[in-house]
Each structure stands twice: as C-alpha cells, then as structure tokens.
Amino acid sequence: MEHQQFSNWIKNSSWPRAIADFNHQRFIAWNTTFLERAGYSEDRIKAIKPEEIIVLSDSRFPLPSDNSHLFAEFIACAVKTTSGSAALPAHIVKSAGRFGYLMVHDAESDSVEFEQGLFVGQQEERARIVKLFHDEVSSTMMAALFALESAKNNLEAQNLPAIQALERASELLSEAVEKTADVLEGRKDEPHKHR
Questions:
Q1: Domain limits, the chain
Q2: Is the confidence at residue 30, as pLDDT, over 90?
Q3: What is the separation, in whole angstroms, between the first and last Cα of the chain?
Q4: pLDDT higher than threshold 90 for residue 141
C-alpha cells in the first residue's frame, strides 16, 4: 500500500489511528477520531513531536519478518491527552525505529485506563527525579568531587601520606556520580568497572 493510500485509509477509519515519523519528529497522518479522543487540534498535532505525547513502555515484542531490513516491533504505550485526564491506552507498531503506526484502543475497562495512567505517572515521576538530580544533586556531588581533587592536589604538593585515602574517596565519589546518573537515565545494565 502506497503512503498516500495508507494515509487515506487512516483518515477514513473509524478507529483512532495516527502515524508518527520519529526521525523527523512529527506526525504525518491521523484521523479525526484520534484527534477527538486525544483532544488535539489539526494545528497542534502538526506542531507537536510524537515523543511529547506518546509514552512507550518497556514491553516490546519483535514482529517476525523474513527480511532483516524490515525490523518492526509491537510496543504497548499510552497517549497523553490535552485534558490531563487518564492517558489513552494504545499500541504502536514501530518499524526500524523510524515510523510508528499508533493504534489507540477504542474502549477499555477502568483497570486498563488505571494501568495506563499509572504507567504515564511513573514515567513523569522518573523524568522529574532525573531533572531534580541533574539540577540539585549532581552539582553538589560534582562540587564535592572538585573539592576532593583540590585537597588531593594540595596534599600531593606537600608530599603528605593522607593522599591515598583522599584519592580513594575521590574515586568512590566519582564512581557514585556515574552510577547514579546511569541508574536515573536507565543505563543501569551498563555497570562501571571498579577502578
């Protein structure tokens, strides 16, 4: 099916659907049912980046294909609405990380809506904690690291024996900063080697 035919099919569908281009960070097709359910206007959906309203879960299922160049995955997600009420439960088929066919569930039970709202809330809380760490904690930890380095350099210049303990404290603080940033940014499965 050609791109234009597919876009027309989506526009004429009664199901809430949209297509996102993640490389160019924009929506390229949608229907009025999608706009009505999510509460967005045509102008707003043209201007918004998909990442701003689509919250992807960690539940990803690769779709089988005979061609390795046509990699696609099925991902549970939620779509944030303009009303700020519960996010809309959805799934997206994302091809090779570029295009995504977004399928908003038409009618769901309260428990699914609760789970989707909980998921979006968790993602927003994680983003808030990462920002708080970046804005408040990391600067304090970096200041402590620089203070330790300065003290180490002063002791080194005076050839005092306490330098090994200070050097070790500096290494541990540096490692703690890196590990904390990794955990907060979701890279906790890439452990740093102990120095």
A1: 3-108, 111-184
A2: yes
A3: 55
A4: no
Structure token digits, residue 192 = 């740093």
Residue type, 168: R
Angle, alpha carbons 48-53-59 (nearest 5°): 140
Q: How far apart are alpha carbons 142 and 137 in whole angstroms?
A: 9
Cα–Cα distance, 30 to 166 (Å, whole number): 60
* Cα angle 147-149-152, degrees, rounded to a multiple of 5: 110
Q: How many residues does the chain have?
A: 195
- Nearest 10 degrees: CA dihedral of 52, 54, 58, 62? -130
Strands 54-63 and 26-30: unpaired
Cα separation, 115 vs 76, whole angstroms: 11
| Three-state secondary structure call for residue 84 | coil
Burial state string for 85-100 with b = 16 or more CB within 10 A and e = fewer than 16: ebbbbbbbbbeeeebb
Domain 3-108, CATH class in plain words: alpha beta
β-strand partners of 73: 62, 94
**How far is the C-alpha of 37 from the C-alpha of 22, rounded, in Å?**
22
Indicate the pTM of the whole model. Answer: 0.54
**What does the DSSP assignment read for 139-176?**
HHHHHHHHHHHHHHHHHHHHT-TTHHHHHHHHHHHHHH
Q: What is the pLDDT of residues 74-131, one digit of tens each?
A: 888 889 998 877 788 888 988 877 889 999 986 554 455 556 666 677 777 777 777 7
